[in-house]
Each structure stands twice: as C-alpha cells, then as structure tokens.
Amino acid sequence: MASQTQGIQQLLAAEKKAAEKVAEARKRKARRLKQAKDEATEEIEKFRQERERAFKEFEAKHMGSREGVAAKIDADTRVKLADMEAAITTRKEPVIQEILKFVYNISPEVHKNYNRK
C-alpha cells in the first residue's frame, strides 16, 4: 500500500512538474509573440518613415515646395483674370449694342396658336 501511495505521489509530482513546464512554455511563447509584435511594429514605423521621407523628396523634386505651387497657382489665376477683364473691355460695347438691337427691333406678331373667335 505504501508503494501505491508513493507511486501516486510520484505521478502527482510529475503532473505538477509537467503543468509548470507547460505554463512556462506558454509564458515564453507569449513573450516571443509580444516581442515579435513589437519588432514588427517598430519595423513598420521605420518603413513608413522611410517612405514618407522618400515621398517628400519626390514631391520637392517634381512639384517644388507647397509654397511654390501655391504661388504659381496664384500667379496663373491673376493672369487668367487679367485676360478675362481684357476680353470684357473689348467685347462689352458690341454685346451691349447687339442686346439693345434685339430690344428695340420688336416686330409684333400674333402667335400661331392664337385662336380668334
């Protein structure tokens, strides 16, 4: 009977030891996963920063600075507005005369759908 108790004690001790090893393995796995996640996040951030820097260089090289683009758009707008003003001043009088001609030259006619009873 003592040998049975001793055997059960050994089995319980072995089971406890195995459970501790499994728990420790799970903890190591969780630590490795967390470490891998942190490393991946860090690598992603470095990659994002590198791509952002490359994009800014590309943008500066091909488009100039944002202030330069805004200034160019502003200058183009001023030129177009000046062109429109010049077109208005040159075409204003003939257009007004054409409109007045239509207003003054009215020929009264009875509409074709008018029905005299």
TrEMBL record:
PANTHER family with a match to the protein in the record:
V-TYPE PROTON ATPASE SUBUNIT G, VACUOLAR ATP SYNTHASE SUBUNIT G
Is Repressor among this UniProt entry's keywords? no
Keywords from the UniProt entry: Coiled coil, Hydrogen ion transport, Ion transport, Transport
A Pfam family assignment: V-ATPase_G
Coiled-coil blocks: 8-57
Q: Which InterPro entries match?
A: V-ATPase_G
Looking up NCBIfam families in the UniProt record yields: V_ATP_synt_G
The family classification in the record reads:
Belongs to the V-ATPase G subunit family.
**Protein's recorded name:** V-type proton ATPase subunit G
